[in-house]
Amino acid sequence: MRNPPKISIVIPCYNERATIRAIVERVRAVPLPAREIIVVDDGSTDGTREILEHEIKPLLDRVVLHQHNRGKGAALRSGFAAADGDIVVIQDADLEYDPADYPLLIEPLLKHGADVVYGSRFISGRSHRVLYFWHSVVNRILTLLSNMLTDLNLTDMATCYKAFRRSALDGIVLREDRFGFEAEFTAKMAAKRLTFYEVGISYHGRTYAEGKKIGWRDGVRMIYAILRYNLAPR
Prior knowledge:
Layout: E1 7-13, H1 20-29, E2 35-42, H2 48-54, E3 62-66, H3 72-82, E4 87-90, H4 102-111, E5 116-120, H5 133-150, E6 162-165, H6 181-191, E7 196-200, H7 216-231
Helix pairs in contact: 5-7, 6-7
């Protein structure tokens, strides 16, 4: 690994006009030794694309444009293909996750031999907005099911905040287009017997009125993805 390692921040976004500038500015404010910021616009129709191309493009290293909405997993695949850092960090565009937590995510990769680090919303003593009891229950059930099949002891499989060595993607083909990505990624990284770490992060969840997009169909798909990618012949 180069010294210092280059960190690629991959930001998938879809109709995030209200927050895209703020999240990019927050990412740029984090002191990192070497980094690139890649935004993948997943077919936005609310003016997000125009902001990316005409207002904040100088703040970005790459902008990848999907001609139509394909889903978070598809946007992340495009972002990973564009990334050339030693370490990749996934960042949502909706301000629910705080880039100030990057040092927590990256430390196990730099100091403890981790290959993959998950930022958990459930083990942190940091600030959390209080929302949606049943969402937290479903998240824990999905994590439990995933853990049973991967033999990991994660507390938050579905977290956005995942940091990993770019080399961890070698030999992996990711297929899920939407939120099933989280389960597929976890299953395929676990199958490689990589070293996982988990750190507590802050979380400032938003309501559906504020633009939250994940729904019950995504939960069903995630169950399917957990079963498919852990039980199918490799």
